[in-house]
Amino acid sequence: MAALFLSGGGDKEHTEKFDDTFTGVIDKEKPLLYIPIAMKNIRSYSECLEWFTSVFNPLGVQEIAMWTGVERKSLDDLHQFSGVYIGGGNTYSLLQDFRFSKFDAVLTDYIQSGGTVYGGSAGAIILGSNIETCAHLDSNNVGVTVFNGFKLIGNYAIWCHYEPENDELIKNFLHTNQTPVIALPEETGIYIDKEMMKITGIKPATIFSGPESKQEVWPGSESVLL
Fold first, then answer.
1. Who is most buried in 62, 171, 178, 185, counting CB within 10 A?
2. Cα 120 from Cα 2, distance rounded (Å)
3. pLDDT tens-digit readout, 40-96
4. pTM for the structure as a whole
């Protein structure tokens, strides 16, 4: 499996160091694919592309493609890109769109065949084991009833936009779902390459293995994750 980049979200000032790490891994001679569909009915896609371009053009990515739908997309379609960036927005809506179009299977095949994927906020959460980590922020107005994510990070669920005051919510999630959590502040991301997790940013990632088990992992650290 190739590299996964999971960001806690936030503005480009928050993710600048992590974004730079990502662009150092991909082939900048090929276009980068941006999928902003989690922003459907939240922000216009033209605004999304303007923001995305402002983030990645200064980092040396000059050719950007944007998909505003993932229906009838294939593995061959994905392999023309240097990487895939799945943006933030409503996590429930994003997962439903991927499932209904069967793009979830295509994206999984892409990753398993060596593709590189960056998930920001909602895009990161769906790559974990359970998307209910977004329930305190997102409305499930699309009626999702199965909350399993892609399970690409072992059994871990991803909690984005983490702040210490979220700890009680995370403990409740752990109690209900019996699922460990990696909590990411907006200034922090994790880079997963094979079985190793590397922390990038300016704040620690926090790993909750159980309701009473909390461990901070600081940027620059590496640990065996899977």
1. 185
2. 17
3. 999 999 999 999 999 999 999 999 999 999 999 999 999 999 999 999 999 999 999
4. 0.95
